[in-house]
């Protein structure tokens, strides 16, 4: 596409004039990997793997489905890599490019066909219900070597993932929520990791972990998937170069070393995350989300005018009807057991509510409520003076029953007191008015 | 709009948001800074075309868009403001969003580095990193005539300027200024290295009296071209030095001044 790019890579690929010119663009040595960084999200099974500037987001999800007919006792693994335009403008949205198909196929071979996940353990009821594990990989930024980054992201996400616990009793399958039972990790036999080798000049020069510019001018690519026990899971050679036997052997040796390093890094990252999670701290890229504000969550203050609330409340109280006095007399069944009416509202429930409001700040009491509450309030006030824990009196005047004397001390607030001081006279008048009607 | 405003979703005053992160879709209010009597001193949404207030000339830069009589944010980044040159403040000036992005959108007058991808008739197609390639007439070079064609091959690097850059239209480049002089533009020489950085870094480097450029100039003798489309072409005496320069420039984006000074002093020692 561009001359300057081939020119730039000449320094690594072409036989140089002097050995000092044998340089990779980013100053790495032939067998160097770029820096790998693994971070986790707040959810299980979510991770971001950065390989230099290449970034891949991995997310694992699970679902209960019916198994395939020919494999009744095996769970289903599904891999999906997506190359969005966000990663590089050259990727077309919505179309399966050759590169994407190739990468997806390679990932499937690397992870599913190597049987790194125990699919039998994903079976819930044979032939009826199995877990389908879906691994979604999104390329967030493209700077070459997508395969390696994606394979690391996939295996890290799988290792990090926890599926909900399930129990089977007879025909009944119970699925437990994350709060009910600790979710269970997947059983992972080994961790296959892809290592890419780029070849230039028909295999004269070899580079590990090619970046995007090196990938553009390479002649061939060899991908070796291997686990830390040096078991090769997949080998794929593309680009149509003829490789010699000892070249492939040498690559597999390098891959072994690299895989051991990467596996160690993954285990360290997983261990780190587990520890931080246990301590309950912030973890993963959740850390980078600042506490301050996301504009959408901001609530604006709504000022409430409370200047003339008291007068208004007084007014309303003066106009309002007294609370229903239909509380029936308590029926004493046996000593210690009493029945108050039948399905008629009891007033001691409101007492609690009133308490909370009082503590929250009595200025912001809504006006409608205040009618009821203040009338309640003064009733309470009357009883504080009595200091009797439970009043079960038959007298006509005292018809409100208070069953929660423990709440009373809280009422000694200046405001409550002054209200009590003012209102009782009114109430007394009203009560007297009511008496004849009864 | 009879519905009561939902708390938290209402527009906010731009002046209080300076330096803070804004998100696409947010609505901003500009201070209505006309003299006394103009609907009190309350903050008002920017009204377009209603009353012209010559004293409060507000320019909305990248990342902000006027939509009807509202001012909406279209990019994610920090809100910036520059007082008008005349001083006095009074609510005018330029507002823009400082965002971190890599995708270039052609803007008229920008100097960019493009790669020639095709020759068709009397036009070159130049890839500038935008949504579509720009066109460049072979007559738009210094001294070019119908008979005297410039020597431009597919794959060459072009440093040019946009004369047409509209939405939904093919942008057009030229390599001459209004006097017909090259003025530094044209085909970039053979060697050197082109690399891409974020648009933010380019703006930083092209800012007047940028320290990074001055320090880099002391390091090695070099030739360097910055394109507003996020491309930098650099050439030093040796490939090694070129690579060092490219990597240092790339790394400059996320370094503090002290870190940068350290690296530069270490490089100049070696």
Automatic annotation (TrEMBL), chain A:
Family annotation (Pfam families): RNase_PH, RNase_PH_C
Family annotation (Gene3D superfamilies): GHMP Kinase, N-terminal domain (3.30.230.70)
Keyword field: Cytoplasm, Exosome, Nucleus, RNA-binding, rRNA processing
Biased composition (Acidic residues): 350-362
Ranges of biased composition (kind: Basic residues): 424-438
Domain of life: Eukaryota
Span list, region Disordered: 341-438
Subcellular location: Cytoplasm; Nucleus, Nucleolus
GO MF entry, a single one: mRNA 3'-UTR AU-rich region binding
GO cellular component: cytoplasmic exosome (RNase complex); nuclear exosome (RNase complex); nucleolus
InterPro entries: ExoRNase_PH_dom1 (IPR001247), ExoRNase_PH_dom2 (IPR015847), ExoRNase_PH_dom2_sf (IPR036345), Exosome_comp_Rrp42_subfam (IPR050590), PNPase/RNase_PH_dom_sf (IPR027408), Ribosomal_Su5_D2-typ_SF (IPR020568), Rrp45 (IPR033100)
Keyword Cytoplasm listed: yes
GO biological process terms on file: exonucleolytic trimming to generate mature 3'-end of 5.8S rRNA from tricistronic rRNA transcript (SSU-rRNA, 5.8S rRNA, LSU-rRNA); nuclear mRNA surveillance; nuclear polyadenylation-dependent rRNA catabolic process; rRNA catabolic process; TRAMP-dependent tRNA surveillance pathway; U1 snRNA 3'-end processing; U4 snRNA 3'-end processing; U5 snRNA 3'-end processing
Major subcellular site: cytoplasm
Similarity comment: family membership: Belongs to the RNase PH family.
Subunit structure and binding partners: Component of the RNA exosome core complex (Exo-9), composed of EXOSC1, EXOSC2, EXOSC3, EXOSC4, EXOSC5, EXOSC6, EXOSC7, EXOSC8 and EXOSC9; within the complex interacts with EXOSC3, EXOSC4, EXOSC5 and DIS3. The catalytically inactive RNA exosome core complex (Exo-9) associates with the catalytic subunit EXOSC10/RRP6. Exo-9 may associate with DIS3 to form the nucleolar exosome complex, or DIS3L to form the cytoplasmic exosome complex.
Designated name of the protein: Exosome complex component RRP45
Organism: Phascolarctos cinereus (Koala)
From TrEMBL, chain B:
Keyword Secreted: no
The Exosome complex component RRP40 N-terminal domain, residue ranges: 20-100
Cleavable signal peptide: none
Keyword Nucleus among UniProt keywords: yes
UniProt GO cellular component terms: cytoplasmic exosome (RNase complex); cytosol; euchromatin; nuclear exosome (RNase complex); nucleolus; nucleoplasm
GO BP term, example: positive regulation of isotype switching
Keywords carried by this UniProt record: Acetylation, Cytoplasm, Exosome, Isopeptide bond, Nucleus, RNA-binding, rRNA processing, Ubl conjugation
Oligomeric form and interacting partners: Component of the RNA exosome core complex (Exo-9), composed of EXOSC1, EXOSC2, EXOSC3, EXOSC4, EXOSC5, EXOSC6, EXOSC7, EXOSC8 and EXOSC9; within the complex interacts with EXOSC5 and EXOSC9. The catalytically inactive RNA exosome core complex (Exo-9) associates with the catalytic subunit EXOSC10/RRP6. Exo-9 may associate with DIS3 to form the nucleolar exosome complex, or DIS3L to form the cytoplasmic exosome complex. Exo-9 is formed by a hexameric base ring consisting of the heterodimers EXOSC4-EXOSC9, EXOSC5-EXOSC8 and EXOSC6-EXOSC7, and a cap ring consisting of EXOSC1, EXOSC2 and EXOSC3.
The protein, known as: Exosome complex component RRP40
Organism: Phascolarctos cinereus (Koala)
């Amino acid at each position: 596409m561009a001359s300057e790019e081939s020119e730039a890579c000449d320094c690594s690929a072409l036989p140089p004039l002097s050995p000092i010119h044998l340089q990779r663009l980013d100053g790495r040595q032939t067998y160097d990997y770029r820096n790998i960084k693994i971070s986790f999200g707040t959810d299980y099974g979510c991770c971001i793997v950065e390989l230099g500037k290449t970034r891949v987001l991995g997310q694992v999800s699970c679902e209960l489905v019916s198994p395939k007919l020919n494999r009744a006792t095996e769970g289903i693994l599904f891999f999906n890599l997506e190359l969005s335009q966000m990663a590089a403008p050259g990727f077309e949205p919505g179309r399966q490019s050759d590169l994407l198909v190739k990468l997806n196929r390679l990932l499937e071979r690397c992870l599913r066909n190597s049987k790194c996940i125990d699919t039998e353990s994903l079976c819930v009821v044979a032939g009826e219900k199995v877990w389908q594990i879906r691994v979604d990989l999104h390329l967030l930024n493209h700077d070459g070597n997508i395969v390696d980054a994606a394979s690391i992201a996939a295996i890290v996400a799988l290792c990090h993932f926890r599926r909900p616990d399930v129990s089977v009793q007879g025909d009944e399958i119970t699925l437990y929520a994350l709060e009910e039972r600790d979710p269970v990790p997947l059983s992972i036999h080994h961790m296959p990791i892809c290592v890419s080798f780029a070849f230039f000049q028909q295999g004269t020069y070899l580079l590990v972990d090619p970046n995007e510019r090196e990938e553009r001018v390479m002649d061939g690519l060899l991908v070796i998937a291997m686990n830390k026990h040096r078991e090769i899971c997949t080998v794929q050679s593309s680009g149509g170069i003829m490789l010699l036997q000892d070249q492939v052997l040498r690559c597999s040796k390098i891959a072994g070393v690299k895989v051991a390093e990467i596996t160690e890094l993954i285990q360290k990252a997983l261990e780190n995350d587990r520890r931080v999670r246990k301590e309950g701290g912030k973890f993963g890229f959740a850390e980078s989300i600042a506490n301050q504000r996301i504009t959408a969550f901001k609530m604006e203050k709504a000022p409430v005018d409370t200047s003339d609330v008291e007068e208004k409340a007084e007014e309303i109280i003066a106009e309002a009807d007294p609370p229903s006095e239909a509380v029936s007399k308590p029926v004493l069944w046996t000593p210690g057991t009493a029945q108050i009416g039948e399905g008629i509202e009891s007033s001691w429930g409101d007492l609690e509510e009133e308490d909370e409001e009082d503590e929250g700040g009595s200025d912001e009491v809504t006006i409608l409520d205040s009618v009821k509450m203040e009338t309640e309030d003064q009733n309470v006030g009357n009883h504080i003076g009595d200091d009797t824990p439970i009043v079960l009196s038959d007298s006509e005047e005292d018809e409100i029953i208070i069953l929660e004397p423990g709440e009373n001390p809280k009422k000694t607030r200046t405001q409550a007191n002054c209200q009590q001081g003012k209102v009782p006279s009114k109430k007394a008048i009203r009560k007297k008015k009511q008496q004849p009607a009864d | 709009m009879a519905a009561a405003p939902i708390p938290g979703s209402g527009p906010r005053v731009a002046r209080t948001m300076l330096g803070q992160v804004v998100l696409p879709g947010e609505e901003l209010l500009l201070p209505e800074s006309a003299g006394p009597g103009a609907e009190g001193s309350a903050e008002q949404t920017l009204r377009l075309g209603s009353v012209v207030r010559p004293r409060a000339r507000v320019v909305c830069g990248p990342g902000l868009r006027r939509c009807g009589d509202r001012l909406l944010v279209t990019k994610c980044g920090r809100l910036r403001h520059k007082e008008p040159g005349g001083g006095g403040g009074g609510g005018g000036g330029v507002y823009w969003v400082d965002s971190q992005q890599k995708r270039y959108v052609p803007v008229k007058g920008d100097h960019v580095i493009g790669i020639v991808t095709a020759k068709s008739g009397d036009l070159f197609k130049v890839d500038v990193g935008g949504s579509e390639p720009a066109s460049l007439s072979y007559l738009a070079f210094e001294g070019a005539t119908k008979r005297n064609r410039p020597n431009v091959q597919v794959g060459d690097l072009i440093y040019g300027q946009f004369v047409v850059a509209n939405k939904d239209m093919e942008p057009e480049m030229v390599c001459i200024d209004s006097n017909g002089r090259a003025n530094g533009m044209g085909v970039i020489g053979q060697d050197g290295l082109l690399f891409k950085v974020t648009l933010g870094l380019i703006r930083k480097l092209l800012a007047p009296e940028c320290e990074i450029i001055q320090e880099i100039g002391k390091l090695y003798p070099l030739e360097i071209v910055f394109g507003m489309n996020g491309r930098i072409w650099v050439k030093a005496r040796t490939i090694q030095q070129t690579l060092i320069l490219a990597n240092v420039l790339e790394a400059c984006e996320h370094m503090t001044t002290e870190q940068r000074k350290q690296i530069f002093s270490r490089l100049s020692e070696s």
